[in-house]
């Protein structure tokens, strides 16, 4: 008995730790047993509200990605349902976003939808591996200045790309500058009906966005019950503005539609009805009759295989922190979860997905209580795919363009420039560099160069540390130079430190003086700095 007593005591602890890990990685196990009717009602309201928001956005983001509209809905339901099981933040809704759509478009252009689905699959694989290896720390190297420049640039690119649908123009473009040039060249071919409908939709959307901020007060300074009801109605009107605009524009286009005549406005056309087939992601495809192998597809996707999942995780963790209410966010769990969302989503023809800040804000404001709200959103999208797709035919492209433009213009973070100028002007360098390069050479290379510039700025203090040099005298009358570095010493700073010390000695009229290095600010030094620096005496406080 005593021979196995140690093992008997160990087993429950081992099983207990496995159980805790399983609950941590599958959070639904923890909160589902406590799920009650009140939470179900709150989640149902929030889920339906988010569903009404994601339906028009999904259709719009699919067209932005260069895909058929139904792919946006395929991407919308898969991520929402999977996040219900693995998600750690009740407010986050997973689905297509403007940023992911833009990065997908770069890979789909002049190709086919198989590239988008494969990119979704590979993104999920990489995110899952990053979670397993706890590589979420890599995201910390993408600083706020780089993120601001990146998101602002992508917002401008997305808005310009939608001018084609807004003005009723017909052309193909490969990048921001090409799109801007072709808009200029084809501006004379704009369609008045599309333009009027699109501009009017943007104006109405921007007005409805502000309706939720209207506050009513009674004689005592507090709103009455009737006023609370009115404010709640205004809030519902505001958050469902995208769906209302799309429905209203669709009714107008249906009313004006004549079977044998050209439509008054450009329509998105036929949307494939029904659920997507459950199948493996494409590990090969065919373009213009030419077969393309899996290896060649990966080669064509290039750096996006790494950048798309990293940017997706960056956005998802940022949203989780925004709605965490001061609680810690498990970045590793978000990596796992987003990886599973993309991995499983690729089996239902999803494009890369991540958390949507706008829909997560709607979810939070709608009073969601648990991640179960995502399940209700997913069910609503599945019902729309099964029942509503014939009516999507009459949705005007100008209305979808208006939905996207009115959403992304608020992602341009120009207001952060002023506080950045006051606090750290050097941070403006990677911000503007990332912004300009993303517009000029593409979002993938732009953010890579931006991160590189930011890392260089971090390394400059190590290569060129600030040195305080002064002449001191011992009680014996011997003069010496006291050199005080303001930070740690590494090999790039050795020659700089030696040359600056020599110049200071010559300037003080003494070319040969003993040098004393005061190490009170040095927390670390590498072998080169320790070996080459001549230290005659260490002065300590």
Automatic annotation (TrEMBL):
Source organism, top-level taxon: Eukaryota
PANTHER family noted in UniProt: SULFATE TRANSPORTER
Annotated keywords: Membrane, Transmembrane, Transmembrane helix
Domain SLC26A/SulP transporter: 42-432
Compartmental location: Membrane
InterPro entries hit by this protein: SLC26A/SulP_dom (IPR011547), SLC26A/SulP_fam (IPR001902)
GO biological process, one term: transmembrane transport
Membrane topology: Multi-pass membrane protein
One Pfam family cited in the UniProt record for this chain: Sulfate_transp
Bilayer-crossing regions: 44-64, 71-93, 113-130, 137-160, 234-255, 301-323, 335-353, 373-393, 398-417, 429-460
GO cellular component term of the entry, any: membrane
Record bears the keyword Transcription regulation: no
Full protein name: SLC26A/SulP transporter domain-containing protein
Coiled-coil annotated residue ranges, if any: none
């Amino acid at each position: 008995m005593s021979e196995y007593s140690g093992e008997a005591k160990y087993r429950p602890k081992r099983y207990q730790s496995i159980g805790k890990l399983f609950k941590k990685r599958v959070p639904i196990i923890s909160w589902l047993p406590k799920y009650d009717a009140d939470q179900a009602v709150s989640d149902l309201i929030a889920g339906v509200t988010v569903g009404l928001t994601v339906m028009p956005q999904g259709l719009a983001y699919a067209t932005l990605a260069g895909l058929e509209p139904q792919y946006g809905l395929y991407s919308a339901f898969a991520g929402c349902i999977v996040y219900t099981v693995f998600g750690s933040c009740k407010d986050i809704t997973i689905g297509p976003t403007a940023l992911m759509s833009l990065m997908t478009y770069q890979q789909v252009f002049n190709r086919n939808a198989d590239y988008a689905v494969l990119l979704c699959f590979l993104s999920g694989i990489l995110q899952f591996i990053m979670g397993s290896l706890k590589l979420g720390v890599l995201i910390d190297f993408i600083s706020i200045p780089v993120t601001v420049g990146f998101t602002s640039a992508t917002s401008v690119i997305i808005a310009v790309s939608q001018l084609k649908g807004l003005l009723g123009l017909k052309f193909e473009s490969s990048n921001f500058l090409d799109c801007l040039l072709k808009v200029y060249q084809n501006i004379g071919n704009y369609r008045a009906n599309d333009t009027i409908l699109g501009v009017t939709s943007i104006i109405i959307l921007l007005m409805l966005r502000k309706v939720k901020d209207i506050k009513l007060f009674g004689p005592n300074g507090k709103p009455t019950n009737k006023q609370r009801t009115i404010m709640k109605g205004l809030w519902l009107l505001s958050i469902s503005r995208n769906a209302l605009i799309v429905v209203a524009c669709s009714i107008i286009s249906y009313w004006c539609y004549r079977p044998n005549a050209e439509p008054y406005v450009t329509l998105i056309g036929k949307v494939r009805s029904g659920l997507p087939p459950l199948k493996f992601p494409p590990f090969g495809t065919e373009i213009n009759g030419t077969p393309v192998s899996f290896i060649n597809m990966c080669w064509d996707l290039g750096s996006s295989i790494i950048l798309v999942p990293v940017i997706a995780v960056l956005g998802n963790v940022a949203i989780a922190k925004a709605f965490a209410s001061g609680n810690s966010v498990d970045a590793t769990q978000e990596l796992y979860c987003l990886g599973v969302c993309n991995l499983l989503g690729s089996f239902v023809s999803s494009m890369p997905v991540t958390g949507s800040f706008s829909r997560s804000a709607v979810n939070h404001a709608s009073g969601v209580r648990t991640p179960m709200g995502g399940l209700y959103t997913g069910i609503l999208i599945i019902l729309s795919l099964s029942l509503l797709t014939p009516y999507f035919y009459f949705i005007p492209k100008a209305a979808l363009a208006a939905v996207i433009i009115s959403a992304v213009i608020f992602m341009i973070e120009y207001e952060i420039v002023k506080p950045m100028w006051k606090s750290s002007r050097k941070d403006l360098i990677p911000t503007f560099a990332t912004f300009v390069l993303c517009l000029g050479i593409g979002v993938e290379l732009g953010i890579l160069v931006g991160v590189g510039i930011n890392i260089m700025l971090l390394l400059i203090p190590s290569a060129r540390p600030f040195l305080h040099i002064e002449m001191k005298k011992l009680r014996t009358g011997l003069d010496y130079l006291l050199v005080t570095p303001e930070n740690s010493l590494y090999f790039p700073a050795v020659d700089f430190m030696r040359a600056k010390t020599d110049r200071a000695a010559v300037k003080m009229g003494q070319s040969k003086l003993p040098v004393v290095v005061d190490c009170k600010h040095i927390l670390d030094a590498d072998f080169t700095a320790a070996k080459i620096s001549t230290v005659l005496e260490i002065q300590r406080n």
